[in-house]
């Protein structure tokens, strides 16, 4: 009353009218804010040794928030690596084990080359009657013997390499499954480091340090609260006047007397009518069937999941 007296008759009248207008603000639809809540599960089993999260905490994508005990996985990996080392020690050293044949071949090829030169020289001398046919036949015989020796060495080399290659393939076939197991363990070890898969706010912590984590069992629930979705309802008469990506005004209670205003965008319109939810008010209170819509609203920090909102179409 003191305030009205200070304002005077005209000011008091305006104040009353503004108050009535605020209280009787009209709207086209109403609904409740929601967010896409995601339950983040464990991917491996084990005791959670560390967990650094709190409800309401904002997490960045990729941030490390805890660890699952990985002792048994490390021990299993060491065992597999030891088995791999044992197999590697048995792998044939083909180059080393066939080096003797290579050396023999080089010696024989050098001797053959020398005798080829000597054969040509004696053959020329034979034409000049400076050498005898017996000398030529002797050199030719020695040359043929060396060539036969070279062929034997080549066959021995190929046979030895074939045996060693067979041994190598057999050992490598034992090695491949072990390598796959090591890769599987490395993947499990990486999952023992708990990383946040998305940016968002922790809504609910479902498990705590020193408790057992199981694959698929939720650790915490989170959601991206930078934008909330207002799920509202419109009547069939309003459906034709609303379109996707249309901008709308959203109102929420700031206190008992004032409203906060937000700008939103229509992101989804249902194609099927449904019975009007009991907790929702529509512009036409007599409407039995309504269409659900979703409005994306940037969150300045004042919007909360479950908060009631009213919509005015622009």
Automatic annotation (TrEMBL):
InterPro entries in the record: UPF0194_transport
Compartmental location: Cell envelope
Coiled-coil ranges per UniProt: 105-156
GO cellular-component term (any): cell envelope
Alphabetical keyword list: Coiled coil
Signal peptide coordinates: none
Domain of life: Bacteria
Matches recorded under SUPFAM superfamilies: HlyD-like secretion proteins (SSF111369)
Identification of the protein by name: HlyD family secretion protein
Origin species: Dyadobacter jejuensis
């Amino acid at each position: 009353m003191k305030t009205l007296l200070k304002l005077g008759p005209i000011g008091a009248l305006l104040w009353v009218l503004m108050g009535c207008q605020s209280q009787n603000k009209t709207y086209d639809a109403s609904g409740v804010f929601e967010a896409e809540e995601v339950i983040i599960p464990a991917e491996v089993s084990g005791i959670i040794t560390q967990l650094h999260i709190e409800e309401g905490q904002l997490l960045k994508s990729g941030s490390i928030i805890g660890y699952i005990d990985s002792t048994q996985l490390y021990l299993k990996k060491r065992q597999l690596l030891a088995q791999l080392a044992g197999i590697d020690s048995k792998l044939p050293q083909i180059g080393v084990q066939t080096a003797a044949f290579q050396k023999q071949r080089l010696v024989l090829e050098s001797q053959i080359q020398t005798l080829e030169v000597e054969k040509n020289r004696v053959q020329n001398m034979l034409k000049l009657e400076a050498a005898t046919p017996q000398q030529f036949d002797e050199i030719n015989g020695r040359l043929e013997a060396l060539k036969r020796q070279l062929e034997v060495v080549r066959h021995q080399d190929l046979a030895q390499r074939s045996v060693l290659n067979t041994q190598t393939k057999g050992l490598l076939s034992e090695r491949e499954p072990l390598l796959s197991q090591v890769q599987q363990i490395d993947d499990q070890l990486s999952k023992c480091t708990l990383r946040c898969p998305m940016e968002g706010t922790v809504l609910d912590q479902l498990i705590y340090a020193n408790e057992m984590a199981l694959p698929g069992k939720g650790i915490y629930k989170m959601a991206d609260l930078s934008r909330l979705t207002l799920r509202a309802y419109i009547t069939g008469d309003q459906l034709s006047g609303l379109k996707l990506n249309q901008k709308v005004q959203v109102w929420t209670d700031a206190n008992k007397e004032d409203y906060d205003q937000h700008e939103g965008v229509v992101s989804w319109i249902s194609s099927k009518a449904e019975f009007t939810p009991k907790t929702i008010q529509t512009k036409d209170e007599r409407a039995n069937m309504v269409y659900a819509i979703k409005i994306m609203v940037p969150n300045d920090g004042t919007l909360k999941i479950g908060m009631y909102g009213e919509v005015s179409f622009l």
